[in-house]
């Protein structure tokens, strides 16, 4: 199955570069380009992409608001944030808006193609440890506890809450399994059930919810 990709960046050279790199894979096809956030929203509506590579800093509507609007209309679309540096102060806001991860614009060609395929398959484009680092670095300190997030966790069993806490602390599935003395498959099942019950799209959103609910605190 071909993965449809939309490129949203205000620099034509960046878009051209990514189009060329993605075009080397028969599994990926670029269905549109946008130079502004407004164009990204319109193009997403017109082309129905599986994945959007979204720049944060664009004229007019930025990539964060564009991400929020696209996902409100097309929840199944995956958004990957493009940033010049992995310390971009807006990355956390973009993840909170629903992005499934981020890539630096210096990404290697093979890694770019692999990342798009990974996100299209429903995975989050951040390793567990990087997820925690990003959330901790850009979350307000202390993170304001959200009543809605706290209430949402009440649908989880005690074991699922524990697994969510470990996910937010940066542990991989294998590490969670070892810590709780369960199989990696069981750990993955608990995470999948938590994602479904909490109605969040991926591991990144699960981590953010854990911080917003106060289940995990920065530095814990």
TrEMBL record:
GO terms for biological process: phosphorelay signal transduction system; regulation of DNA-templated transcription. One of its GO terms (molecular function) is DNA binding. The modification 4-aspartylphosphate is found at residue 55. PANTHER family: TRANSCRIPTIONAL REGULATORY PROTEIN NARL-RELATED, TWO-COMPONENT RESPONSE REGULATOR. This is DNA-binding response regulator. Residues 149-214 form the HTH luxR-type domain. PROSITE patterns: HTH_LUXR_2, RESPONSE_REGULATORY. Keywords: DNA-binding, Phosphoprotein, Transcription, Transcription regulation. Residues 4-120 form the Response regulatory domain. It comes from Streptosporangium carneum. SMART domains: HTH_LUXR, REC.
């Amino acid at each position: 199955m071909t993965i449809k990709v939309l490129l949203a960046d205000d620099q034509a050279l960046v878009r051209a570069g990514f189009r060329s790199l993605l075009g080397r894979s028969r599994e990926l096809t670029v269905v549109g380009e946008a130079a502004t956030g407004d164009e990204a929203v319109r193009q997403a509506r017109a082309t129905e992409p599986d994945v959007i590579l979204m720049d944060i800093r664009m004229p007019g509507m930025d990539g964060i608001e564009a991400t929020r609007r696209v996902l409100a209309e097309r929840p199944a679309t995956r958004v990957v944030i493009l940033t010049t540096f992995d310390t971009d102060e807006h990355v956390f806001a973009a993840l909170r808006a629903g992005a499934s991860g981020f890539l630096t614009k210096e990404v290697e060609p093979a890694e770019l193609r692999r990342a798009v395929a990974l996100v299209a398959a429903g995975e989050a484009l951040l390793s567990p440890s990087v997820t925690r680092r990003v959330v901790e670095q850009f979350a307000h300190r202390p993170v304001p506890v959200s009543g809605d997030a706290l209430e949402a966790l009440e649908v989880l069993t005690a074991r699922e809450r524990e697994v969510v806490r470990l996910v937010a602390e940066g542990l991989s599935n294998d590490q969670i399994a070892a810590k709780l003395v369960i199989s990696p498959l069981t750990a993955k099942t608990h995470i999948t059930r938590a994602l479904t019950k909490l109605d969040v799209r991926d591991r990144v959103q699960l981590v953010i919810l854990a911080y917003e609910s106060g289940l995990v605190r920065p530095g814990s």
